Amino acid sequence: MTENTTHEIYYTELATAALNQFLAAKAYSKIFVLVDENTKHHCLPIFLDKLEIAPAAILEIKAGEIHKTIQACINVWEALSQKGGDRKSILVNLGGGVVTDLGGFVASTFKRGIDFINIPTTLLAMVDASVGGKTGVDLGVLKNQVGVINQPQMVLLFPEFLKTLPKNELYSGFAEMLKHGLICDQNYWNALKEGIDFYNEHHIRTSVDIKSAIVTKDPTEKNIRKKLNFGHTLGHAIESYFLDHVSLKTLLHGEAIAIGMVLEAYLSHQLTGLSGLDLQEIKRTFLTFFPKVSFTAKDIDIIIHLLKHDKKNVNNDINFVLLKTIGEATIDVKVPPALFPDAFAYYKEP
């Protein structure tokens, strides 16, 4: 079990026991389970076998980032209402980052707020999205523009769900694990860059512990929690751009963030003292696990334009998290826009 000041995180058999004990003690009026098409098929039967109290209803949304919308929230709010949800109900979010983000937001706003539990089923959601209380949806292709920070009652991790995932989904989560090493723990980075057993609970726990410790100190992202955004300023803009262009293959979150981390490592080398050797190591490591993506000059111009919508901007200044060295990050760095094309040029170099 991982403890913090906001919620508890349980693993495997202890997670099952904690869930059933919690639900029995709370005596909720109704238990609702939110799934998407994939987790309904692959994960829901496994989960229901663990549950001692039958849920009132299974609610389903469509899978994929393009469905992380206000309309999807409306559909779930209406389903909760139609099925007799009240302020004493609880929503269990069984799925990846879209389900936990959207489900957390739905629960936080239905009847002015009901309890929810996150049960992440992807590696990305286990080490990132389900932990820390960030909830919300996209606004068009712009990532996470509408939402609140509200903590779940608990987070339950069952690594067995990872066996249902394709490799690209596993690598998407791996990108966030590499990020944790880059911003906080050089030894962890060194271990991960040699490769990973995706079903190794030890590495999952390490990433969860890193994120949980940061969130406990700064739950509402006033200070050090911003470090978790390394790679995400440019990475989110890249992700949004690829979502908006049907002619391009959609990038998974981690695939876009991997590119963002190489770009922002270059900015770190220019602005915050990251050494050339560290920069080369970061680029080499990410290109080992994530194939290089091509960008035209027009692509880059549009991606740079999308930066103005980043949530971290203040007074039109684009704020970055950059690295001083591998294992140490610094926040609120303003980057001269002239460096953005240079960062892409570095990424494109052989």
UniProtKB/TrEMBL annotation:
<feature type="domain" description="3-dehydroquinate synthase C-terminal">
    <location>
        <begin position="173"/>
        <end position="313"/>
    </location>
</feature>
<keyword id="KW-0479">Metal-binding</keyword>
<dbReference type="InterPro" id="IPR016037">
    <property type="entry name" value="DHQ_synth_AroB"/>
</dbReference>
<feature type="domain" description="3-dehydroquinate synthase N-terminal">
    <location>
        <begin position="59"/>
        <end position="170"/>
    </location>
</feature>
<dbReference type="GO" id="GO:0005737">
    <property type="term" value="C:cytoplasm"/>
</dbReference>
<dbReference type="GO" id="GO:0046872">
    <property type="term" value="F:metal ion binding"/>
</dbReference>
<keyword id="KW-0547">Nucleotide-binding</keyword>
<dbReference type="Pfam" id="PF24621">
    <property type="entry name" value="DHQS_C"/>
</dbReference>
<keyword id="KW-0456">Lyase</keyword>
<dbReference type="GO" id="GO:0000166">
    <property type="term" value="F:nucleotide binding"/>
</dbReference>
<dbReference type="GO" id="GO:0003856">
    <property type="term" value="F:3-dehydroquinate synthase activity"/>
</dbReference>
<dbReference type="InterPro" id="IPR050071">
    <property type="entry name" value="Dehydroquinate_synthase"/>
</dbReference>
<protein>
    <recommendedName>
        <fullName>3-dehydroquinate synthase</fullName>
        <ecNumber>4.2.3.4</ecNumber>
    </recommendedName>
</protein>
<keyword id="KW-0520">NAD</keyword>
<comment type="function">
    <text>Catalyzes the conversion of 3-deoxy-D-arabino-heptulosonate 7-phosphate (DAHP) to dehydroquinate (DHQ).</text>
</comment>
<keyword id="KW-0862">Zinc</keyword>
<dbReference type="InterPro" id="IPR030963">
    <property type="entry name" value="DHQ_synth_fam"/>
</dbReference>
<dbReference type="Pfam" id="PF01761">
    <property type="entry name" value="DHQ_synthase"/>
</dbReference>
<dbReference type="InterPro" id="IPR056179">
    <property type="entry name" value="DHQS_C"/>
</dbReference>
<dbReference type="GO" id="GO:0009073">
    <property type="term" value="P:aromatic amino acid family biosynthetic process"/>
</dbReference>
<keyword id="KW-0170">Cobalt</keyword>
<dbReference type="GO" id="GO:0009423">
    <property type="term" value="P:chorismate biosynthetic process"/>
</dbReference>
<dbReference type="InterPro" id="IPR030960">
    <property type="entry name" value="DHQS/DOIS_N"/>
</dbReference>
